[in-house]
């Protein structure tokens, strides 16, 4: 077997604006839904609970420290860095007619810094955040007005960065809205399924309109979607479990099906009918949806199981995705089951289904790190996790899957999305900050930093 990854394979890491930048009210930035998390919507208004640590207000202060961080990424040999643009830096309230120049200038500086080291930017238009203004004024993605505002934002950034950014993504983990409607579509958590699917429809139309705009504006540009690759296995080989697994996998694959094929798959007709959901879909929407993506990107952290056994299901409720644990797999400290082979299975499944190039844009292990007396951090557990997953990526490439690259999640420690905490660390680079917001924000290299550097330098040949 060939142990070397293809020469044009892109190696790097992925971050998101709201989890690294901080400076949440600088440069004319408006408040985003993420700035207010882990709080929520109270009586229709989004509010921050007084007294929270305000951990994202500063995050890792990437807004000011990015030159130092990009230099460290370059030292590891990154050829790609995935980040997102904070919509609220460009359109602070969301519904302005023209963009905020200071916000645009910030990303110019960031992309220029990356260019110094020949690091290719991979940019997500919306990573788990939207302007609070759009939530309060229009009800988030529940409203069609938000589609127009998003398209204006997408066109503004495509025009501005067309010569600097050629690789784009529309919405981060677009299928997560089913489980976290506030994070995904700016709706209250208690919204009905019908409301959530209507908002999702609007987001799918917006995604397709962004694809159209990208193809019009960015010469040689490529734009992909972004799915949470939530692969599910049947817990048993009982046909009822297998059927239920098929249905539950379709619940997330549905997003990819629309974004790749340009129309709703047939199975959703029955899905909506069984739930008494009638979507409002215009003729224009149907035409817009025909603008399909160029490649599939996805995150991969874990797999889970499905069963029709109610007792087993009860036990699983309370996990964010309500997945039933797999008895054959170990878990991380946060209960995420570790399944390297699942990545190979998922990649083959996505490639068989779509025949489009894949980009793994998130993968990694959130863990607590210990700083030794000499300042070093021996994170061999992280090395093991990433090594084992990359070996499976190599297998998938050998299987014939077309893969553009790999950006592991959080190459530098950052604020966690689900818990807004710091102690869940993913980085090769340690950041001195704790869950209460104490620390100097100083950066230091972990053991995994040198490991990843070697992996990139050897085009994967150093993997074991
Ligand atoms: C993905 C998100 O769900 O997983 C990231 O796109 C997130 O934003 C990552 O940070 C890991 O999740 P967490 O909750 O450990 O930060």
UniProtKB/TrEMBL annotation:
Location of the active site: 362 (nucleophile)
GO molecular function (one): beta-glucosidase activity
CC terms in the record's Gene Ontology section: cytosol
GO-annotated biological processes: carbohydrate catabolic process
Top-level taxon of origin: Bacteria
SUPFAM superfamilies: (Trans)glycosidases
Alphabetically ordered keywords of this record: Glycosidase, Hydrolase
Leader sequence residues: none
Keyword Hydrolase on entry: yes
PROSITE patterns from the UniProt entry: GLYCOSYL_HYDROL_F1_1, GLYCOSYL_HYDROL_F1_2
Family: Belongs to the glycosyl hydrolase 1 family.
Name recorded for this polypeptide: 6-phospho-beta-glucosidase-like protein
């Amino acid at each position: 077997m060939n142990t070397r990854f293809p020469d044009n394979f892109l190696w790097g890491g992925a971050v998101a604006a709201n989890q690294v930048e901080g400076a949440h009210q600088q440069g004319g930035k408006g408040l985003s839904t993420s700035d207010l998390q882990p709080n929520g919507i109270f009586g229709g208004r989004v509010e921050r609970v007084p007294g929270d640590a305000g951990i994202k207000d500063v995050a890792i202060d990437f807004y000011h420290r990015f030159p130092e961080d990009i230099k460290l990424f370059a030292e590891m040999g990154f050829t790609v860095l995935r980040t997102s643009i904070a919509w609220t830096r460009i359109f602070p309230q969301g519904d302005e007619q023209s963009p905020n120049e200071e916000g645009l200038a910030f990303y110019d500086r960031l992309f220029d810094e990356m260019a110094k080291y020949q690091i290719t930017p991979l940019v997500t238009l919306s990573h788990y955040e939207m302007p609070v203004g759009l939530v309060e004024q229009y009800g988030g993605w529940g409203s069609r007005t938000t589609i127009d505002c998003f398209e204006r934002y997408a066109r503004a950034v495509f025009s501005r960065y067309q010569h600097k950014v050629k690789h784009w993504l529309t919405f981060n983990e677009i299928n997560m809205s089913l489980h976290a409607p506030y994070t995904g579509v700016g709706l209250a958590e208690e919204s009905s399924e019908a409301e959530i699917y209507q908002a999702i429809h609007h987001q799918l139309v917006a995604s397709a309109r962004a694809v159209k705009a990208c193809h019009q504006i960015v010469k040689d540009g490529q734009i992909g979607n972004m799915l949470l690759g939530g692969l599910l296995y049947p817990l048993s080989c009982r046909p009822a479990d297998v059927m239920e697994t098929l249905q539950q996998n379709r619940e997330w694959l549905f997003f990819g099906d629309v974004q790749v094929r340009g129309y709703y798959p047939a199975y959703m007709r029955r899905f909506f009918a069984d739930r008494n959901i009638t979507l409002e879909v215009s003729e224009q929407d149907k035409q817009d949806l025909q603008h399909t993506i160029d490649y599939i990107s996805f995150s991969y952290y874990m797999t889970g199981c499905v069963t029709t056994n109610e007792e087993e299901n009860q036990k699983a409720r309370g996990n964010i995705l309500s997945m039933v644990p797999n008895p054959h797999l170990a878990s991380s400290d946060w209960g995420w089951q570790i399944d390297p082979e699942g990545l190979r299975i998922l990649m083959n499944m996505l490639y068989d289904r779509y025949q489009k190039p894949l980009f793994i844009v998130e993968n990694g292990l959130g863990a607590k790190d210990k700083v030794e007396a000499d300042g070093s951090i021996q994170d061999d557990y992280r090395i093991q996790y990433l090594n084992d997953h990359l070996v499976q990526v190599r297998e998938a490439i050998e299987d014939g899957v077309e893969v553009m690259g790999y950006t592991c999640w959080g190459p530098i420690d950052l604020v966690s999305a689900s818990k807004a905490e710091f102690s869940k660390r993913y980085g090769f680079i340690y950041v001195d900050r704790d869950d209460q917001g104490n620390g100097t924000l100083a950066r230091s290299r972990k053991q995994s930093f040198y490991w990843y550097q070697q992996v990139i330098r050897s085009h994967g040949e150093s993997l074991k």
